[in-house]
Amino acid sequence: MASKTPQGKLGVLIPGLGAVSTTFIAGVDAIINGQSAPIGSLTQMGTIRLGKRTENRSPKIKDFAQLANLEDLVFGAWDIFEDNGFQAACKARVLTPQDLEQARPALEKVKPMKAVFDQDFVKNLDGSHKKSAENKMVLAEMLMDDIKSFRETNKTTRNVMVWCASTEIYIEASDVHSTLEKFEAGLVNNDSQIAPSMIYAYAALKSGVPFFNGAPNLTVDIPAIIELADQTGLPIAGKDFKTGQTLIKTILAPGLKSRMLGVEGWFSTNILGNRDGEVLDDPSSFKTKEVSKKGALDFILQPDTYPELYKDLYHKVRINYYPPRGDAKEGWDNIDIFGWMGYKMQIKVDFLCRDSILAAPIVLDLVLFADLALRHEKKGIQEWLSFYFKSPMVAPELYPEHDIFIQLTKLKNTLRWMMGEELITHLGNEYYDG
Fold this sequence. Notes:
alpha/beta; Dihydrodipicolinate Reductase, domain 2; 2 domains; 11 strands
């Protein structure tokens, strides 16, 4: 049985050395060197209440759950461009020159390995730094060799993989995804429905490495990969980091529903100019993101349960590529609501956010929680981490929970359970209320 306490180096393997991953690496370096607080990271700044409120026990999550130390993280990446982490961060234009210079040594250490890439799945990008082989199984084996080499070179005791690469085109699960046997045959036969992200996930799990998906791609949300995760005893999670506009939706919608206020329409539009915006300018990639972004409201508001309030909700999502904005994207929402006696009201939200600044602490938390799940031998879908995803993965017979407040309660109760503490249910004792 694996040790439940973190020992040795934790390898962080990242497909996609772009804006999100370089901002994540630079931020971790800044935290280690005392140049920045870990703002936005639940694992680093969050606390967890234990027992009754009268006991006044609220340790930091990182200490309570025995999470890996940031100093023990070692980074590796794949990308279709040869730029090292510093060069990639300069091109991403997320961080100031001063912050880039401070993080330069840490970023320059990360030299990307050749990527597995197929432009059929990401229409608006291409690069020369990529692997080639006679079939997709060989590509998977090449990734396994990369993982083995990384592990040996950096002397890591555990490794996790988090997908930070671009959004792939929209595909639905098909026969090749239905079983592990069919999937492996599909790898050998170069099946067109096996995306590059799936090859990474397969290689990771075959190498003993948990895989968490930060994009809306299908990737690990297929029976074949779920079967492999169960077979290997490894955690998987996804999909799509919950950062800007959807974060706001999952905060606002539960509040409106809790007060039984009706919602007639919710119009969302985004403008962004980073690589993600360029990729999403392709309709087939946008479709993948649209499905991810639109799902939350239906599950939160439950129109079948509350037809008078939500059955006729008109929900529209738009994403527009606008190069001058760069990584500082803008998410604008118009919400048409109604209240007592059917009187109409409006809410307008203009969130001028920074995509990678919001995503980087999510990557950190998922890296540490993936390692925690690995050490506690929690295999398969990690639904308790739905807090971080736009389209949380769940078992086939369940519906996903999108209410961010319920998600946080489930996350913290899972941590209590892992560490042998009593769950907080708010029942049976007045001191458990709140």
